[in-house]
Amino acid sequence: MGGPYRLVVLPGEGIGPEVTTAARRVLEHAARAEGVEISVEEADFGIPALERHGSYFPAQTARVCGASDGILLGAVERGGLLELRSHFDFFANLRPVRSIDCVLDASSLKPEKAHGLDILFVRELTSGIHFGPGSRGEDERGSYGYHTMLYYDAQIRRIARVALEHASRRRGRLTVAHKENALPHIPWCALVSEEAAGFPGVEVENLLVDNLAMQLVADPGQFDVILAGNMMGDWLSSIGGALVGSIGLLASASLNEHGLGLYEPIHGTAPEIAGQGIANPLGALGSLVLMLRQWEEDLLADRIEQSWRRVLEQGYRTPDLGPASSGKRVSCEGMADQVIAALAGAGASHV
Ligand code: IPM
Ligand code: MG
To answer: Residue 253: in which H helix or E strand, if any?
Structure first.
């Protein structure tokens, strides 16, 4: 509590620089108004880092991030991301999915199914198939490739404790995504159930991931916290984007055991709209809100969250959220301006 804090911004590629610039501007305005001191520094990451320093994740960037209190990442296609997550052991990826009443019409679900959703995906982020041994080879049957899903029991236990902890502070329900009918050597269900003994207030349910994916679309209101390994968590949490209307709204926090966090919108680089200035900055801004909560700066977090909700209620929309009421279609910077105006109760400059 209290600061001063050091934030490192890694704009990355595609729409990453646009959304981080917009989100950072809102944070800086809000922090100034609340008297919270946050210094912000940018560092090279992804393709721009490769071009300038010959590495997607240069040592200099690792150093700056290591000395910070939090890292905001825009987006990268692939290069550097797994290395960054692994370097700081950001194993606990939290992806909250909450529906917003005034944008229910953008959801792929009927409004009554989308209304009131509040799901937290807890995804293991530094192990599993993203990190297991893999290669390409050739034998008498031809060329082949493989990736390996490998989990130490201890890695499952520690992410299970994070998920149980969150469930115990929420509605007390944890759903474990698994595929033990085909992958029996990674016993998520038994390991989570052993850890759950320490959380008597949490009811644990195991669901095969194929069923879970269907239930997420058919009846998402039943879920509170969903725990999944790296790959299943990646795929399931993206469904969350369709539930609430746009993946552009979704934020994430990835924490290590010391509470240092990497904060990223869960969308990708969106090359088809990059450079047009029309990306939705609310996923990046929501990620900064998660960072503020991790810092226990709840007043500032509440203030930003209330402001962007008000802007959506007023009808302002980036194009990913569907039709805007007349005159209320906004660009990425325009959305940031509106949020800043809502913070200060003043008018906005960009359209
Ligand atoms: C995500 C992304 C990444 C992942 C990619 C870019 C490697 O899809 O963060 O959801 O699979 O973790
Ligand atoms: Mg993904």
So the answer is: strand 251-255
Q: Which ligand is nearest to the CA of 14?
A: 1
Q: Give the model confidence (pLDDT) of 167-193 as tens digits.
A: 999 999 999 999 999 999 999 999 999
Report DSSP state, residue 247.
G
Query: What's the CA gap between 228 and 92, in Å, rounded?
Result: 11
From 234, 239, 263, mutation site for ligand 1 pocket: most ligand atoms within 8 A of C-beta: 234
d(CA 223, CA 240): 12
Of 179, 166, 168, 73, residue with least CA distance to 120: 166
Chain centroid to CA 269: 14
Residues framing ligand 1 (Cβ under 6 A): 78, 81, 234, 266
What domains sit in the chain, N to C, each tagged with a CATH number? 1-95+250-351 (3.40.718.10), 108-130+146-244 (3.40.50)
Task: Specify the 3-state DSSP secondary structure of 237.
Answer: helix
The 10 Å Cβ neighbour count of residue 164 is 24
Cα of 136 vs centre of ligand 1, distance in Å, is: 21
Helices (H) and strands (E) in the chain, counts: 12, 12
Question: In this structure, which ligand is nearest to the CA of 84?
Answer: 1
Element (H, E) at 307: helix 298-313
Residues of the chain below pLDDT 70: 1, 346-351
Give start and end residues of each alpha helix (H) in 119-223. Answer: 153-169, 188-196, 209-218
User: In this structure, is the dihedral angle defined by the CA atoms of residues 23, 300, 344 and 326, taken in order, positive or negative?
Assistant: positive
Tokens of 221: 């209101």
Q: Which atom of ligand 1 is nearest to the CA of 85?
A: 12
Q: Which two tokens stand for residue 198?
A: 């320490």
Q: Which amino acid is at 72?
A: L
Residue with tokens 């049957």: 141
